[in-house]
Amino acid sequence: MEWAIQDVARASGTTSRALRHYGAVGLLAPSRVGSNGYRYYDQAALVRLQRILLLRELGLGLASIGRVIDGQQDAAAALRTHLRLLEAEWERLARQIESVRTTLRKTERGEQLMAAEAFDGFDHTQYKDEVIERWGQDAYDRSARWWESQSGAEKAAHQQRHEDIATDWGAANRSGAPVDGEVAQGIAARHVDWLSESVPPSKGYVANIGDMYVADPRFGNNYDQHEPGTAAYVRDALKVYAERSL
């Protein structure tokens, strides 16, 4: 059985133009072209299109998709891979849904929300390019491998540990504790120990982390929300710790 290009586009939620483009780049050839110039697609082509669209949704470019699909010629094996990807995406979306439900419920009740609850299921690779630019590919790879090796409970514990440290930083700043004093340096030691769970810390790494907390509000707000100016306080305390202990 074959389907005309318009029918395939309608059923798949894509466009005839996109299907012709897939053909032009060698990704999805029609099973035949009629005398009228119309393109027709058989079942094998539909299965291939299904995989193309899935991999597009997962963020792969067309060249990468071609390498993935052409590297696995066995149809049943390809479908099993397809199914595993769908199941992984379904699990991620289910965790996102539950995360939003938890956030809504706790917001309505005025309850404290943990970071692990708010961001469960979201993409932890979104800062990949920045990490590589600042600290190199090796640092990103080691950190990513460590994160993926953690269970859900371990990830939650890691994030909660940071929340506790951030709360203590805010309290220390609010109390006026000097950045080179016992209180601040004790928190700095805990902070560096927390960082070392994913990447072995160095003097330069810790100092750059502190600078990033101030320069980038996405990170600085984790500390300033507890007390204005805390991100700068953390930066200064971490620099003292790095000079003394690393």
Structure description:
The chain is an all-alpha fold and 246 residues long. Among the domains are: 3-71, Multidrug-efflux Transporter Regulator, Chain: A, Domain 2, CATH 1.10.1660.10; 147-245, Orthogonal Bundle (Globin-like), CATH 1.10.490.50. The chain has 13 helices and 3 strands; from the N terminus they run E-H-H-E-E-H-H-H-H-H-H-H-H-H-H-H.
Please outline the major beta sheet. Answer: 3 strands, antiparallel
CATH architecture of the domain at 147-245: Orthogonal Bundle
Total DSSP helices: 13
- CATH superfamily heading of the domain at 147-245: Antibiotic binding domain of TipA-like multidrug resistance regulators
Assign the CATH class of the domain at 147-245.
Mainly Alpha
Per DSSP E runs of 2 or more residues, the count of β-strands stands at 3
Flag low-confidence runs.
Answer: none
Summarize this, please?
The chain is an all-alpha fold and 246 residues long.
Highlighted features:
Multidrug-efflux Transporter Regulator, Chain: A, Domain 2, mainly alpha, three-stranded antiparallel sheet, Globin-like, elongated
